[in-house]
Amino acid sequence: MSDAEGPDERIRVAVVGLGIGRMHVLAFHELRKRFRVVAVCDVDAERATEVAGWLKGVRAETDPEAIWAAGDVDVVALCTPPSQHRAQVEAALRAGKDVICEKPLVASVREVDELAAIAAETGHHVMPVFQYRFGNGLQKLLALVDQGVAGRPFVANIDLAWRRGADYYAAPWRGRWETELGGVLLGHAVHLLDMAVQVLGPPAAVWARTATLVNDIETEDSAVVTLRWANGALATLSATLGSVPELSRHRFTFEHLTAESGTDPYTNSFDPWTFTAAPGHEDAVAAVVDAHVPGTEDYIGQFERYADARANGGPLPVTLADARLMLELVTALYTSSREDREVALPLAEDDPSLAGWAP
Ligand SMILES: NC(=O)c1ccc[n+]([C@@H]2O[C@H](COP(=O)([O-])OP(=O)(O)OC[C@H]3O[C@@H](n4cnc5c(N)ncnc54)[C@H](O)[C@@H]3O)[C@@H](O)[C@H]2O)c1
């Protein structure tokens, strides 16, 4: 921007870790009226140089310390392997940056609380990534629920059938408790569970069975889960990383409507969703669906809402409390699977599993 257009007030971002971080760079570029990518960082110098070359005026770094020390970075988008997040989020906050951090945020509920305390102490914010939330199909269902049109929830069916093989697990951090922190439940199904929790709220109890069937890894790659809500609603999740055709699917049965998502594995929160009204509820359902104004989706949807929240001082679109809730749910799933019992939520304040779910 030239001086004639006034000062450049765009949010200055550095993206650290350039696997999925490439998608962050592209999303920020798509939102270039709000954000400016000033630096990218990867310990792999070739990756850093390549991605920096995509856009004008982006410098390549290979040491995240240079990002924390940079005076021209407002926000760090952290896309490094999971076990690095806890220390790197703290370092960035203490260096005066806000942080957007990929899932899984950290290795325990207690670590989320530690980061919340550091965020409060430093006055900077952490926004965990849950980009599936912002699909327009899911947003329509949320409007139907919020406006009281859906009625009582009965049952939800959640399917995750993805495929991950040797090439995926060639990255040395994947498939190990110490570095990936979990398997399909923590790393993949968490997106679909977050969508369900948006619709139904936090569950009151879960029962999970996990298995490692597909790949020669430490963490689980297949799981089945039942969830129960205080209002009586029930849900099942089945998840595997061994499916030949890939899909993600939600089906929510409410008193006054049934909502069915599309089946694209990574964008099933997007349109088209099917809303079938119970007799007598057709007009009410159609009115809410027709009134829905489509918003931006995926990473762009989350980052745009983040920029709005910064501009108007409103709540972030995804908060540390959201990440805490999901990690508490995942903690309960791993405990349930290991101890072969139902686990009630929320976990007690003195529950030892709040310090970590890893075996
Ligand atoms: N939200 C989603 O849908 C989604 C999708 C994929 C991955 N993820 C998450 O993103 C994170 C990264 O996953 P990925 O698939 O991109 O992994 P990846 O291995 O493909 O990429 C990670 C990159 O980080 C770099 N790196 C490692 N340590 C670093 C450090 N200290 N400083 C700078 N760079 C470093 C690596 O060289 C690599 O290029 C994980 O937490 C993963 O769970 C989220």
Description:
36% of the residues lie in helices and 23% in strands. It has helices spanning 21-30, 45-52, 64-69, 85-94, 109-122, 136-146, 166-169, 177-180, 184-200, 282-291, 298-312, 320-339, and strands at 11-16, 35-41, 59-61, 75-78, 98-101, 126-128, 153-163, 205-211, 222-228, 234-240, 242-254, 257-260, 274-277, 343-344. The strands form 2 sheets. It has an 8-stranded mixed beta sheet. A 6-stranded parallel beta sheet has the order 3-2-1-4-5-6, with helices on both faces. The longest helix has 20 residues, at 320-339. The radius of gyration is 21 Å and the shape is globular. The protein starts with 10 loop residues before the first strand and ends in a 15-residue tail after the last strand. The site of nicotinamide-adenine-dinucleotide has 22 residues, from loops. Nicotinamide-adenine-dinucleotide binds next to loops.
SSE topology:
Layout: E1 11-16, H1 21-30, E2 35-41, H2 45-52, E3 59-61, H3 64-69, E4 75-78, H4 85-94, E5 98-101, H5 109-122, E6 126-128, H6 136-146, E7 153-163, H7 166-169, H8 177-180, H9 184-200, E8 205-211, E9 222-228, E10 234-240, E11 242-254, E12 257-260, E13 274-277, H10 282-291, H11 298-312, H12 320-339, E14 343-344
Parallel strand pairs: 1-2, 1-4, 2-3, 4-5, 5-6, 7-10
Antiparallel strand pairs: 7-11, 8-9, 8-14, 9-10, 11-12, 12-13
The protein binds nicotinamide-adenine-dinucleotide.
Residues 16-20, 41-44, 47, 64, 79-82, 84, 102-103, 129, 131, 171, 187 line the site of nicotinamide-adenine-dinucleotide.
